[in-house]
Write a structure and sequence with these properties.
The complex is a heterodimer of chains A (about 350) and B (about 300). Helices cover about 30% and strands about 20% of the residues of chain A. Chain A is an alpha/beta fold. Chain A has 2 domains: about 140 residues, 3-Layer(aba) Sandwich (Peroxisomal Thiolase, Chain A, domain 1), CATH 3.40.47.10; about 180 residues, Peroxisomal Thiolase, Chain A, domain 1. Classes of the chains: A alpha/beta (about 350), B mainly beta (about 300). Chain B: It holds the Pfam family zf-ChsH2.
Chain lengths: ~350, ~300
């Protein structure tokens, strides 16, 4: 395995509304910023994550290349997933050994549609999508299952998670300014409106570099000492929704438990996912979870997972943490989970 | 900044819907569904998957060709309550999404439960499908699930003609005239209010009528939070009142005082209806109101509850 590190990370100041920019316009400043931070003008590989269903147009991600400049031709790829999974592809690409740097980015505008309904389109088209099962509804089924098992998803615990996340978000210049949670009405019981991550527009970019190039570009590269993703069955009734077996498997494969975890950035689009993921990742009590505010304070869809990697890496790069964990997810009810371990010290 | 108003509506749609082939396994399930039957498919390991999948999610092995009829009843394993249904939802009134383990299945089916009230849904609740009038081989051939019948509401009503009897009629005549009448037992020497013709303790005939005061002392009381046609307001207080000169308490309402201030030993007086409104009825006494006198010592009261 080659040692690969995050050497630069940038994100937009995310908004809860359409700020008047198209995707390429939103993306351009963060690409400039990581180029500046890394000192690299071109990259051995480029990979992005986005979702055509957000804009409702096929191959909409191609136009984002305008923000990048693809001439002379570049080596490029795209995943119809969160940018964290594009980062995984770039990490794999760097293992080939013929290129040393990769640019990874993700972008998403929730403001163009109702994401809650669009998420129904990702469901199995025979058994689930025709029921009109929306995103908050299937998440509420998981929250209910977690609560029944006593997985730390009771109302007081969820309220505290949202309160903490929003307070941290207010301290994060890139996240939304959301008030402390209030109101007792359920959205879809047991979830309340504030348990749901806010619709957000935003973009982010990460630069990966291998071996000596990473050491050259950053004083304290955030070495990816472990990265893995695992998926489980799609149909909700075939799984125990109260726990995340795939996240636990990915965490084991990434080696989360091999050392202390200073910080964990988790892709929690609903408050009840935090206790489920804490348990699955085996995070010790001392681990600080989502100090950026996490997705409950800013959820630019298709970017949120990549931001988790970026925020975890940032704390290694700036010296405030030595070992951090990033998590990203895809699919309904935490179906697919990616876990990365980032460290100040190379393990090999 | 570009104008925020410069926006257009864009619709992504397959007019008439998107045609998909089902394959043999899902097709079998939907075909049976059209005939209002629910089937699962057995895996090589012996589990019954409902709804059927082509591959065992545990092993990735193809499932067997054995289909097993399941349900139609099932058990709710987990549920989420939708208080405000969205346009795409299967019901237009509040309902529960649920994971339902159909009888005979080893996995749970996701569907809607028309339960009416979130308090009516419990894990372990038994439900059955409500079929659409026309079925077409679609998951929505089941309009929703509904709870099994566990209770019915039976109407009960009978009418009677009641009369007060001689003793109570005499007492009500007194109430019409603004006085409370009791009867003294010649043997026990106790005064019973309301007036009665024989002693409830010793059975001796009572022939001495005694007029008692319309003031008395509360011996015990209850605060009622359910509305009652006779009560002035909710909460209202009903109390045992030992009228001065009586040996047994009479039950009556207490008013003109906040419920939380009513206490044992409190001195009260009857609030009478104006003479021109009086009838042969206890309605003549609106309620008892505090007199403002010092409390009596409850331990010295006789005839308490």
């Amino acid at each position: 395995m080659r040692d690969v590190a995050v050497v630069a990370f940038a994100q937009t100041v995310h908004t809860g509304h359409d700020a008047g920019q198209n995707e390429a316009e939103m993306l351009r400043p963060v690409l400039d910023e990581v180029r500046r931070a890394s000192g690299l003008g071109s990259f051995g590989f480029t990979c992005s994550g986005s979702c055509d269903y957000l804009a409702g147009a096929p191959f909409s991600f191609v136009s984002a290349l305008d923000a990048l400049g693809a001439w002379p031709p570049i080596s490029e790829s795209h995943v119809e997933m969160d940018g964290a999974f594009a980062l995984y592809e770039a990490w794999v690409r760097l293992q080939h050994g013929d290129v040393d740097s990769a640019l990874v980015y993700g972008f998403g505008k929730s403001s163009m549609t109702d994401v809650r309904e669009v998420m129904t389109l990702q469901l199995d088209p025979y058994y689930l999508a025709p029921l009109g099962l929306d995103q908050v509804s299937f998440a509420a089924l998981q929250a209910s299952a977690a609560r029944s098992r006593g997985s730390g998803a009771d109302r007081a615990a969820l309220d505290e998670i949202v309160r903490r996340s929003r307070a941290d978000g207010r301290a994060n210049p890139y996240a939304l300014d959301l008030p402390d949670p209030s109101g007792e009405e359920d959205e879809v019981g047991p979830l309340r409106p504030y348990d749901v991550a806010p619709p957000t527009d935003g973009a982010a970019a990460v630069v990966l570099a291998a071996g000596d190039l990473a050491r050259e570009l950053a004083e304290r590269p955030a070495w990816i000492t472990g990265i893995a993703h695992r998926i489980e069955p799609h149909y909700l009734g075939m799984r125990d929704l109260s726990r995340s077996v795939s996240a636990a498997d990915a965490a084991r494969a990434a080696g989360v438990g091999k050392g202390p975890v200073d910080v964990a950035e988790l892709h929690t689009q609903f408050s009840h996912e935090e206790p489920i993921l804490r348990e699955a990742l085996g995070l010790p009590d001392g681990t600080v979870v989502n100090p950026s505010g996490g997705p409950l304070a800013a959820n630019p869809i298709m970017v949120t997972g990549l931001i988790r990697v970026g925020e975890a890496a940032r704390r290694i790069l700036d010296g405030s943490a030595n070992r951090a964990v990033a998590h990203a997810t895809s699919g309904p009810c935490l179906q697919h989970n990616l876990v990365a371990v980032l460290e100040a010290v190379e393990t090999r | 900044m570009p104008s925020e108003d410069l926006a257009a509506t864009h619709v992504l749609e397959f007019p008439g819907g998107y045609t998909r082939t089902t394959g043999p396994v899902i097709g079998r399930f939907l075909t049976e569904l059209r005939d209002r039957r629910l089937v699962g498919v057995r895996t090589a390991g012996g589990r019954v998957l409902v709804p059927p999948l082509e591959y065992d999610p545990d092993t990735g092995e193809p499932v067997t060709d054995e289909y097993v009829e399941v349900g139609p009843a099932g058990t709710v394993e987990s549920w989420a309550w939708v208080s405000s249904p969205r346009p795409g939802h299967p019901l237009d009134r509040p309902f529960a999404w649920a994971l339902i383990r159909l009888d005979g299945a080893d996995t749970a089916l996701v569907h809607a439960v028309d339960a009416g009230d979130p308090k009516a849904v419990q894990p372990g609740m038994r439900v059955r499908p409500r079929w659409r009038a026309e079925t077409s081989g679609h998951i929505t051939d089941i309009a929703c699930f509904q709870p099994e019948v566990t209770r019915i509401v039976a109407p009960v009503r009978a009418e009677y003609r009641v009369t007060p009897g001689k003793a109570l009629t005499r007492f009500l005549e007194g109430v019409r005239d603004g006085v409370f009448l009791g009867g003294r037992c010649p043997r026990c020497v106790k005064v019973y209010v309301p007036y009665r013709i024989s002693c409830p303790s010793c059975g001796t005939l009572i022939d001495e009528e005694v007029q008692v005061a319309d003031t008395g002392t509360i011996t015990t009381f209850a605060i009622n939070n359910l509305p009652d046609p006779r009560a002035p307001q909710v909460p209202f207080v009903s109390a045992y009142i030992l009228l001065d000169g009586a040996d047994t308490p009479m039950i009556a309402l207490v008013g003109d005082v906040p419920a939380q201030e009513v206490r044992q030993g409190m001195r009260v007086r009857a609030v009478w209806a104006p003479p021109e409104e009086r009838t042969l009825s206890m309605d003549n006494v609106r309620w008892f109101a505090p007199t403002g006198e010092p409390d009596a010592d409850p331990s010295e009261l006789e005839g308490g509850a």
